[in-house]
UniProtKB/TrEMBL annotation:
Gene3D superfamilies: P-loop containing nucleotide triphosphate hydrolases (3.40.50.300)
SUPFAM superfamilies reported for this sequence: P-loop containing nucleoside triphosphate hydrolases
Alphabetized Pfam families for the sequence: AAA_25 (PF13481)
Organism domain of life: Bacteria
UniProt name for this protein: AAA domain protein
């Protein structure tokens, strides 16, 4: 009797490059994409203040420092706090909390119904963009697994699957080891299974607990690794950005995609042609200089962003040339100007 197996499902490189696949949606531009993320920090390092402000920014659609936020419902599971403390903190940072920002101080564990609770909330609030779980330890079940790595990976995979299914960001707050490390990413408490399963790791590191300044280390699958120097304002309790590689506002829509959308709006007709022809037409109409190769790659990679602005982009190949087709579909969510 022969061995039965399921053959590998493969795709060749040429087909892959020419197939329009869904790209990650960002809840906070260039910083927090949809998926599962973890923020590590020492106790009383200011993690909860940062998470509260993040939820407020997302729910109001306001910038987080230089980074544009996608407006939507935010759920903050503040499982180590009381409503009295949350109210006090909220009053410290704002006078206007929107009705699409929700809090809960109690939740089931992952093995006792948390996934069902989250699914129910998402059905009730389908515009949800962000869920913060503070802290991860409060939702973990009893570990009977002799392999800690496997246990860490298995538990967080459940949350990651929910984030992918609903195209939202779930951010878990976690503690750090007491021992310092040259690589801040190695300071997360637990095994490397935690950092292995999540899409992004953030580490909020203060040299001394009394320091007003901290460094936020950021690394992930869909973002560029960077570090942000922050300072906690003692009056407002908001983490202010001191230094960042991004001096200007980082928008949810790529600048090249925005330029294409502005050109299409200006021309008022659909476009069919090569990337070179599109680049020449854009330069003639707007003065913006775009390299055809960069333009083609950006359109392929970020066609979903162009769709949000009301334009459908597709690619067709004829002999040795690739043609771009851009057609109007609807009024986009962000409109002209991003």
């Amino acid at each position: 009797m022969g061995y039965e197996y399921t053959p590998l499902t493969t795709i060749d490189g040429q087909t892959l490059l020419n197939t329009q696949l869904e790209t990650p949606r960002f809840v906070v531009s260039s910083l927090i994409p949809m998926g599962l993320h973890i923020l590590g920090g020492a106790p009383k390092a200011g993690k909860s203040w940062l998470m509260l402000w993040l939820c407020l920014c997302v729910s109001k659609g306001e910038n987080l420092w230089n980074y544009q936020c996608r407006k939507g419902t935010a759920l903050y599971l503040c499982l180590e706090d009381s409503y009295e403390r949350i109210q006090s903190r909220l009053l410290d940072i704002t006078e206007d909390a929107p009705d699409n920002l929700f809090f809960s101080i109690m939740a089931c564990s992952l093995e006792d119904g948390l996934t069902e609770q989250i699914e129910y909330f998402l059905r009730e609030h389908p515009d949800t963009n962000l869920i913060v779980i503070d802290t991860l330890q409060n939702i973990r079940g009893e570990s009977n697994n002799s392999n800690p790595y496997d246990n860490d990976y298995r538990e967080l995979t459940v949350l990651r699957d929910i984030a992918y299914k609903h195209k939202i960001a779930i951010l878990c707050v976690h503690h750090l080891r007491k021992m310092k490390d040259v690589d801040p990413m190695n300071m997360l408490s637990g095994t490397t299974g935690l950092s292995g399963v999540v899409d992004t790791v953030f580490i909020l590191d203060r040299e001394q607990r009394t320091d007003s300044r901290a460094t936020l280390f950021c690394t992930g699958r869909d973002i560029e690794s960077q570090k942000l120097v922050l300072e906690l304002d003692s009056a407002t309790h908001i983490w202010k950005l001191v230094s960042d590689s991004a001096a200007e506002e980082v928008k949810l829509i790529d600048p090249v995609i925005q330029t294409v959308a502005d050109f299409m709006l200006f021309s008022s007709v659909d476009f069919t042609g090569t990337a070179t022809q599109l680049a020449e037409a854009i330069e003639k109409a707007t003065g913006a200089v775009l390299y055809p190769a960069v333009l083609s790659k950006k359109l392929m990679k970020h066609h979903g962003q162009l769709s949000e602005l009301g334009w459908r982009c597709s690619f067709k190949r004829s002999r040795n040339e690739k043609f771009i087709e851009i057609t109007r579909v609807a009024v986009g969510k962000y409109g002209s100007g991003g």
